[in-house]
Amino acid sequence: MAFVKSGWLLRQSTILKRWKKNWFDLWSDGHLIYYDDQTRQSIEDKVHMPVDCINIRTGHECRDIQPPDGKPKDCLLQIVCRDGKTISLCAESTDDCLAWKFALQDSRTNTAYVGSPVLSEETVVAASPPPYTAYAAPTPEVYGYGPYGGAYPAGTQVVYAANGQAYAVPYQYPYAGNSHQSPMPSFSFSGMCIRIFISQFKVK
């Protein structure tokens, strides 16, 4: 961030109305900061011109102020703030006063940096991330086989091949019971009794 204008100005104190020399820096973001001296070690105050300032007076427009000894009234400058505070200043010359007036007016009407913080020259500003386009999440695909529409012969089981083709394979022992139970061979109870009876008769 760069300086728009810097230099010495006389500032009238609020209570004692005495003139004090301060160093002023006007930043490109619209902040006017003044210090005790040019070393910028101690900040006296700061004004955000686009937000805090409501009017700028120069020369004979200034109110309730007398210039310091040896200075004409055309060197006077007043910054009227929104909170009712008025900062009374005196420039080194009439030309310097006009230069400050124009610089302050420009910073007051420049709204591009409203709300921006004051940054030093060593401050690194991180770049914002590039814009991105949001994409909808892909719909998960479910793979399966539909119901087999054909008829199966009795006592057969259906086997699916890797390509999804259905094949009917006959059971060795057809069973129509619970699918979780092992198939059992079918037989006739009455036939078993007859075979047992005949075998006993042959033994005797």
TrEMBL record:
> Keyword set for this entry?
Membrane
What does the record list as GO biological process? regulation of cell differentiation
Record-given protein name: Pleckstrin homology domain containing B2
Output the SUPFAM superfamilies linked to this UniProt entry: PH domain-like
The organism is Marmota marmota marmota
Q: Where in the cell is it found?
A: Membrane
One GO location term (cellular component): membrane
Which PROSITE patterns would you find in this protein's record?
A: PH_DOMAIN
Q: Where is the PH domain?
A: 2-109
